[in-house]
Structures are given as C-alpha cells and as structure tokens.
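the three lines:
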Amino acid sequence: MTNGKKGLAHRAAGLLGVTTGAPGARQALAAAALLAVAVLTQYPASALYAKTTVRATTDGSVSFREPEDEARWVAIQRWRYVTYMPGRRWLRFASLGNDSLAADAVWIKSAGYVSSEFQSSQKGKRFEWLGKLYAVTMDLDPRWEQACRLGAMILATVGEETGGSVDLLVRGMSASPDSWRLPYEAGVTCLMWPGHGDDAERYFKLAVARARAAGGKSPPQIGVIKQILPNLAAEAGRLDVAIAHARARALDRSVPAVQAASRRQLREWVSQQLEDALEDAVGAFMERAGRNPESLWELRRAGMLAAFDRRFAQAVVVFEDSLARLVEIRREVGPEAGRLPVGSDGDATPEALAASGFMHRMILEGRYAPPEAADAYGRPFLYHPRTGTVRSEGLAIVRVQRTTAILRLASGFFHRRNRRFADSLGELAEWIGRRIAEGKQLQLDWVPVFEGGRPPVHPLAAWGEGYPYDPATGRIALPEKYEVDLDVAARGDLQK
Amino acid sequence: MTFAGIGARLAGVRAVAGNTFREAARDRVLYLVVAFGLLVLVSGKVIGWVSVNQDVKIIRDIGLASVSFFGAMIALFVGTGLIQREMGGRTIYTILARPVARWQFVVGKYAGLFGTVLAATAGMSLVFLVYLAIMTHLAPGETLDGAAPPAALGWPIVQALVLTGFELMLVTSLAVLFSSVSTPILSAVFTFFTYVAGQFASDVAWLAEMAARGAEGEPGSPFWGAVLGAVYRLMPNLDLLNVRGTAVHAIAVPAGQMAWTIVYAIAYSALVLVIACALFERRDLP
Amino acid sequence: MHPIQTRDLTVVYRPSLLARSTTGLEGLTLAVEAGHVFGFIGANGAGKTTTIKTLLGLTRPTRGEAFLFGISSRDPASRREVGFLPEAPYFYEYLSGRETLDFYGRLSGMPRDRRRRRADEALERVGIAGAADRAVRTYSRGMRQRLGLAQAIIHGPRLAILDEPMSGLDPLGRRDVRRLILDLAREGVTVFFSSHILSDVEALCDRVAVLSEGRLVAEGRVGELAAARVKSVEVRCTGLAREDLAALGDGVAVDEEALRREEGVLTFDVPDAQAANRAAALVIERKGAVLALTPVKESLEEVFGRLAGHGPSGARLPVRAGTARTQTDAPGGAADGGAE
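prediction for all of em together
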C-alpha cells in the first residue's frame, strides 16, 4: 500500500476531504460556498458592467444613412492588415485590456499618419487608411467625443471622405446618447453634402432633441439649428412644416432680426405652397377635361378651387364680384390709371388688372382690399395656358433678384479664377457645379442655383424669359420690372 | 471556538503577516517596480504632448493603467518570490513547528503581501491624483469649441482606483495560490497568464456566444458554447473590475454595480485563498 | 500520556508521478516517556529527519500515526508545548535576535510581557544576550544554533525536539548545549534529539533508538544496548612484566600507550571474566597489586556500527569516529575512523 494506484486514490480522497477527516471537508465546503457566491454575484456584476460599458442607443433615433453604410462599417472591422494596421482585438490584447489607452495609441498614430500623408505623391490613394484608423479608435473607445469630432472633421476636409466622416459621427452618437454635438456635426456635414438634406434634417432634429433632454441653457448652436431646420424642410418639399416653423418664429418678437427673417421666409413659402396647389388644380382639370384651362377663372368656374378655398385662407385670384369692384375703381380712377390691356370682351381681365400692377397699387393706397389677396406679396399669379404653369409673381421677382445676385458673384469669381469671363451661363454653371461636387465651393445658397452643373432656370421661363448674360462684360442684367423691393409686410401686417 | 481561540488564530496570522510585510518592504524588486511605475505615470505628459490636444485624457489613461499593471507586477514579482524563498530558505520549518496551522501561514502571507501591494498602489495612486490635478490645472486643453473638459478629480477616477484595489486583491490571491504549489518562475508565469486572461473575460463570453450561434456560414455548437460559457463564469473576471474606460470620460459607475462587483472580488479572492490553503496543507515540505 | 508516540509510522516519497517512490520511514512504532532524554541515531538517510518532520506535522505519513502528548501530529495544537530546533536553522536575516524570538513567541501565542521576559531569559540561557539586538545576518554559525535553541525553549515547552543540536558548534558550544539539555531534563522537559555524535548520545540519553534505512533496528537503554556484550576486561596492575602475560594465553592485548605513560603500571585486556580471574591470581602470585578490573563493554559506536553500519542492504556506511581507544578487532568500520 505504499505506491501505485492505492496511494493515488488515498491522495485524491484526501484532497477532497473525504478520508482525512474534518479539516478537509470543512475546506471543501468553504470552497464550494465561496464558489457559489462568486458565480452568483458575477451574474449581476457582469450584466451591469455590460450596460455601463456599452451605452448604445436602442431607440433607433440614430441610424446610418443607408443599410449599405452599416455594412461598410462592419466590413471595416473585418480587415486584417496586421503588419500595418492591427485590428481592434490585437490592440486590446497588446494593451492588456486597457482599451482606452489603446485608443490613445491609435489616435497618436493617426496624427502621424495625417502629417506623413500630406507629403505623399500618390494623389488618389492619399489618406487611404485614415477612415480605418479612426474607426478603430472609435471601436476601442466609443465614448471619446473629442476624437470622434476631430476625426470626422479631418476626414471630411483633408480626407475628402464625407461618407466616412458621417459614419464616424453616427458611431459616436450611438455610444454617447447624451451628446448633442455629434449629431450637430453630422447635420452640418450633411448640409454641405449635396443631396443629403434629408439626413441633415434628421441629425439636426436629433441634436435638438438631445439638447432639450439634457436640460439647462440651450447652446447657441441649437438656436442656429432651429433656424436651419425650416429651410431644410422647405427644400425637402415639406412646406407645411417649414411654414409652421416660420410662423412661430415670425410671431416671436424677442429677436427682431430673426422675426424679420422669418417673415421673409414665410412669404416665400406661402407663395410657393399656393403656387404648387394651383398647379395641382390645373393638372386635375387637365385630367378631367383633357386640356389645360384657359385661365384661372375657368378653374374657378369649373368649381375646382372649392377645396382650395377651404384650405387656403389667402385665395389666389380675384373673383368676379371683386372684379366688378375693381372695374368700378378703374372707372373712378379714370384715365390716370393708365392704359389697361383689354381682353376679348372689351373689358379688363383680372389677369390684366393684376399684371398691370393696378391692383397692387390700389391695395397699397388702401382703396382696394380684395377679399382674398393674391400671393403673400399681394401679387397676382401668372398662368401660362399652354404649359399649365402657374407662377407667383412676387415669388418670381424675389427669386430672380436672388439668383441674379448669385450669378453676378459667380461670374466675378469665375473671372478672378480664370482671368476671363465665361462664354455663357452654361459654362459658368458647369464650372461652378464641378467645384461644388468636389467639395471646393461651400456657399450653401449657391448649391441650388448651380445644381447639377446646369444654369438656373428662370421662374418665368414658360413666358420666354431668361437671365440675360453678356459674355463680354460678364454681367447679368436685371430687367427693370424686377427692381422692386418686395420686402413689404405680409398680408397679415397690412393693417399695421 | 472560544474568543481566546479566535484570538490565538488571528495572532498567528498577524505575526506572519507583519513579518511578510517587513520582508516585502525590504525587497528591492518592490522599489524597482514602483519606480518604473511612477516613471511611466509621469511619461503621460510627454506622450500627451505628442498627440493633438488630448493631453489630459492620455495622462488619465496611462495613470490608471499603470496603477493596475504595476500593482499586479508587484504582487507577481514580490509575491511569487516570497513564499518560495521561505520554503527554499527553510525558515518555514520553525514557523510551522509552532502551533500554527498551514492555513494561518498562507493567510498571513497573503495579508502581508496584499498589505504591501495596497501600500505601494495607494502611493502610486496618490502621486497619480496629485499629478493629474496639477496637469489639469495647468493645461485645461480639450476645448475644440468651448466644450467643458470633464472633471479631472472626479468620483469616477476614484471609483476606478478603488476597483483596481480589488482587482489587485484578486491577483494577489492568485499569486499566493500559485507560489504555494510551484516554483517561483512557474508561479510567476501562471500568475501573469491569469492576470492577462482575466482582462479578456468578456472576449471569452463573446467566443461562447459565437460558438453557440455559429458564424460565417459555420453551424453553431451548443456544447462548446456551454463549455466556453462555463469557463467565462468560473474564470476570474478581472475585466469587471476594469472601469478605466468609462472613468476617463467622467462616467460614474452606479452604486449597485460597484457593490456587486466588490462582493464578487472578495468572494473570488477568498475562494482562491481557500484552495491555496487546501493545497498547501496537503503539501509535504522537503 | 507519552510526549511522543508513534504507531506504524510509514512515509513513502513520490517526488513525481513518473519517479520511483522511495521509502523514508517504515513501520516506526515508538514511545518516549516523559522526562526522558531520548536519543535518535542513524546514518545519513536513515530517516531521522523524516521522523522528526512527521512528528511535527511537516510531513504527512503515508500510513500510521504520530501523537504528541496524545494529540495527533496533524493537529497544530499538538505542538503547543513542543519546541523544535531544525538542523542548521534558518532565520529572517534582517531581524535581530530579540525580534526573532519575539516573532516565534507571537506564533506560540505568548502575550507580550511574557514574551519579552522569556526572550531575555532564553537569550541569557543560550549565551547570546550580548548580540541580541544585532541582525541575524551578522551571527556566526554557532550563534545561530544558539538562537535556534532559544526559540525552541522560549515558550517553556514540555518537549524539546532537537535535530542535530551539536552541529556546527565548537567544543565549548557543544559543552554548553550538553549542559542545556541536562538542565532541561532536570526541569522535567522531555528532550528528543537526533545526533551523529555518539559520545553525546551515550553521555546524555536515557534511552536510544537506532534507525537504519527507514526501520527501527534497536531501541532501549544505552546501557542495555551496549551491555549485551562484554567484549573484554581491562586489567591494571603493578608488579607484572609484559613477558608474564604469556602465561595467560591468547587474546591478551597490551595497552602500549598506557605503558608508556605510566611507569610500572601494566594495562592489558583479557577476553573474558575467567581470564580476568586468572590474571588477578597471577598478579597476586607475583606479589603485584591489582589496581583495576574494568569490563570493557561494546561502545555505542560499536553497537551502532553493528546494527546500522551494515544495513540490510549490506552496504558499509560511514560512521563518525568518537572514541580515543583503538580497538584491534572492533567490528564494523570503526577502525576506518573516517570523518564524515
């Protein structure tokens, strides 16, 4: 019984405390009890730890722009270029689980990478790894807001990778649900990115919601967002939203500049909304009757504006009873009223009256208050029967003024850069459009004007109007009739 | 078990502990490790200077990581040598010839060693906190656009240091366990391995999940998933005691989590000690 | 209740699963009476240290049991009244002698005042009171041994187990230790010590046990063990000349050295008692004087050599020379007189 199997069994039994008596059994019991306690406490501890460590949003308020972007982000994690860019797990291992420290290391590496890449001559492949470096940094320390913002900024500008920049910000947003800065940056980036107004709006809304949830004083950036949001909505075609915003702000007297700006926006958008509605009505008439109406009157006579009237307090056209009143006034005013174009029935048509500005003048003089004004500027709507185009005159004037100003600036810019004037608006537009697409031209208001690299379409193009460009001088003329200051009070303010 | 009995037991443990503490305090390796740790700690400023505008965060990261890592190294190097030196030097004969139970010896060694580790770590933490306060005061940094930098001496940092203390309690118990049963080099290797492996417990959990679910076209294996899951539950989860990643962003750990985690650390350390005592008890001294 | 009692104590070493096991101790059954000085002798590797370690619970027996004062050796309480001096004791080098004793006193559960007092006494008693506050690092071998003794007695044990207490000591030191052991015995402390120095064992011990290759080969009073054989009788007389011895026949050996030393005195050995009688008769016949008739018993060394020198395996084991007498026909290897 000295060696061999019996000795081993004896030892094993001794270890388990079976044969050596009380002490061993006590120890085994104590060990079992402690093991139970350890394992039991491990469950809540690890669950709570997971919650603290990974604080991603689960309410879906943050999402990638496209499903493909998420796939791309996931794909970034899979590459294994160990020699140059180790993956996240390797870095975790090397830092012995100090993820935050590993993130610092990668961040320092990326700073060096940026500066070294500046010297690189391979134009197309510059900053190739930058996005991946930042992605790894984010994965190791998702809560590192500063790195996220700085990285996104660098990616978007130097790295010329707007998509990657926004992806980075999305990752940061989801890990830091309290941060409003990150969605704000994302919104601004998308704003500069042609064709991503929707995304900009989405991120801006998220920023506002988060800032509100955080409580306290609203940061100035949030105020800026609140001004931008209606524009975005309008650009996206959601005019009711935009108008609702602008109405609210127009009533807010705290900042007069904001109030005035909001009123301007309000007039534009209301007019646009009315314009759209009228064109819809024309289209409906076309479907029913197989042709365009000859005038807006015909639309009214066909009863197609009843719903329209209900919906819009400011109805569009001058109606028959008020036409009578106008004719009456004209008779009163007499020859001083100037020559009025006469329609086929020998009398002034409402359109003629509107086109002559007579109605407008009468309104201004307080002698005529139509039951419903024309567009929000008090101007008539112009109707082109052949194409079915409806245009708000006031809106057209405003747009032409603005576009002409931009064209003039653009022409001058072209001249400075290319030492000559553009041959045509087409060439100018193409050049500017290319610069916008390359991200070099960042004026927000130029983007819609030169969208797609094509010259802007004149609002009254159906009437054969265009922007007169003189290639010799590079000047874009503004016809006299557009030299009107329409910054008048909106209808609601006429009484003031 | 009378009070006198408990007192006698504790007297033995205290005597061994006190002696261990004195012996450890004379160990040159201790001071070497501490010096190195402090060096790395203050290097945070230099490294932070290299990066873009992120001085304070890197100081925090390096500081917290240093306290944990070098604390563990103290436990490892000083601890594994301690018990083996005792046995090799045969001072243990005269000690165990006293009415001192084997477990009292092990617990006494542990207490002395942990006391040393704690003292050294507390010292390093203090230096770290003071350094951090100075650095933050001198160079607020981190203002890309007026964003306020997180508080340097916040409760989260203190929490991280407290949990690091408990992490070291666990690591020390492992060092004592391994050095009670194997040679200094082997026990150092085992302790280091367990320390590193413990940091990646969550990866083991992830592996378990992957194994169970299957990935990239391969079918899952519930068996391996269960095995890995059990490994995760039973291995020392040192990552639970690592809240440095959130502390550097001034995010506090909720009290409930602190409580559960601390209980876990204490229970696991005690478990390891009981095993060490049991193994040591059955060991024949050469 | 015996201070020490073992029953079929067996220790088998198995260093690793692959190595062959070696038996350190086999079937040792022993009992030590209270108040005795008990000697434990054997060659190197015979199992002395193994036995002591098992008694103190440092090693677990594979089979059998050991009891100190009736308490199993596995229970730390069994060592409450036991003092132990290991062979070549090691201490913490940086502590002073006094601090070392304080440490061990604490381990024995002594309260502080008693500890201090007894430490002073022990230091005094072993003779290193002067170096008490110096670090152990500065102690010589002999001082360490004394310190070891001090820690073994500081708590006033009823049993002192000493493993080679004389090793590393000069003759003065050995004398002091011998004196200490006797003092302890006088105080009623049971002393159990193992030693190579057979003369010490002979001089001090009441009983002795002989171990060889893990087995107990002899145990009993010193006198009993050695008394088994009277090898010869030594006769000291005057009035005889060397030539006269021829009449006594064979087997007479003359002590040349004694002859040289003392003029006129003849000292010689005869084989047995009858021959002694005849020798005495011869002396009287020659008108001499019988000065002394001394039976020469087998010395312990010879017993040892006989019992343990040729172990069961048949190998001759070295034995420490301890006696001054040269024997012409001593069994075993005593004539080798080889130093260890």
